[in-house]
Amino acid sequence: MLPIVALVGRPNVGKSTLFNRFLRKSRAITHDMPGVTRDRIYGECVMGDVRFDLVDTGGMVLESEATPELSKDFEDEIFEQAREAIEEADGIIFVVDGKEGLTPLDRQAAEYVRKSGKPVFMLINKVDGSEFAPQMTAEFHEMGIEQMPVSAAHGYNLHEVRDYVRRFVLDLGIPEETEEDRVEAGLKLTMLGRPNAGKSSIINAVIGRDRLIVSDVAGTTRDSIDVTFEKKGKRYTFVDTAGVRKRANIQDHLEKISVIRALKNSKRSDVTVLTIDITLGVGRQDKRLIEFLAKEKTPFIVVVNKCDLIPKSETNKALEAFRRELRVIPHVPVVMTSAQKGVGIGKLLPLAETLRRECEIRIGTGALNRALAAVLEKLQPPVVKRRRPKFYYVTQADEPIPTFVFFCNDHTLVKQSYVRYLENQFRKLLGISAAPVNIVFRSSHDNKEWEKARGISSIGKRGPGRERIGGAKTRRHETKYKALKRRRRKEAESEAGKGKAKKGNKGDRH
């Protein structure tokens, strides 16, 4: 195990900014408003030859009136998260604000940190230069903790602080992690959904403890929180994200950042768990998220949460109603859960493992072409503009999801309905039931010049005016292209005629 170092302190002293500086990447959301960080955030930090886990925590508030922006319940929950970080940490970095000076909250937090008995040193943040350091650090000496000035925002003294933190971790005396001790990252699952759908509650139910703050107030989770745990000898990482609301309803800049991070995490994870509140049904925002995941070809599971809020006799009817609503994605698994009662929670991880195995499936070219022959024998592609698409062979590309590349004479002749037919047939023949399948067409090399002249890409994309075969846009594009060729031919002929006339005039003069 790597050494664990926790960043603690009262709200709005710059812990998250220091956290990002130490990790050298924007891992935690930073904002001038206090109380942005609520759950504890972990990140692996490397400083020279030293590796350790750094923990960012929410602001410690030991008085209920200290932060009016937060309710008393949130303050208690945030303090509980910071307390757990202090308990599991091997060393503590206590952060204070040099501009505001020593406050009663700082004294109370420092006293609480001392009681832990862990090695601790203090960083006085927001000291923007060496000329300000003596005055801004003077009153902190009375706390009796070894200290260093720093400016996380402007980078003052940051190099010296990194070097000091490196020595601080070495002095903890934690044995270095060997290659045998390292555990594989394992399956990464991202929770996605509307606010207050129960994403954090599901994670707590799966891991069996209250790792994340849960509240009835929508928007409790603001940052993307990684929760790593082991179950039955396997390692998993859940990424809890902020709820995604309708774009027109997002006014706060902080919420915009949270939504962007949530969508990015869904694309980077192995499996995305889309959570829907059963009492609200499949809303417009849920359909937008489904469309986003389907377009990005992201492997995902639909979890219908809070099923304990409806009578048991209506559970099957509700599940069928959800499947009808989600008929545009018939391959995606749908699971009914109740995070509070623990119903259906045990199905999530095995289902995610199955989905990942399907995404990693690799099929030989011979087997694929035998499947293609069977599919074509069953139903030939329809004729378009007196031409029938002709398929030469198919192969699988090296992609994270099953991607099949079909080589044909002209991909623009393949109708979308036949694309769906190919996908469904290949799913049946190859045993791919839940994973997304990507179908790509490539035209033959002989047609490249002809396609380029018509504005068509040979890698499976339609060019200008090719949105619909035989449509008005197609005809307009071809008419314009023919008119352009005629105009250029006439211009060339007129130029040639002028050249001959000039030569004739010169001959007459002589």
From TrEMBL:
GTP 1 binds at residues 9-16, 56-60, 125-128. GTP 2 binds at residues 193-200, 240-244, 305-308. Residues 3-173, 187-360 form the EngA-type G domain. It holds the Pfam family KH_dom-like. Transmembrane segments: none annotated. Residues 452-510 are annotated as: Disordered. Keywords: GTP-binding, Nucleotide-binding, Repeat, Ribosome biogenesis. Residues 473-489 have a biased composition (Basic residues). Belongs to the TRAFAC class TrmE-Era-EngA-EngB-Septin-like GTPase superfamily. EngA (Der) GTPase family. HAMAP family: GTPase_Der. GTPase that plays an essential role in the late steps of ribosome biogenesis. Associates with the 50S ribosomal subunit. This is GTPase Der. It comes from Pseudodesulfovibrio portus. The lineage of its organism: Bacteria, Pseudomonadati, Thermodesulfobacteriota, Desulfovibrionia, Desulfovibrionales.
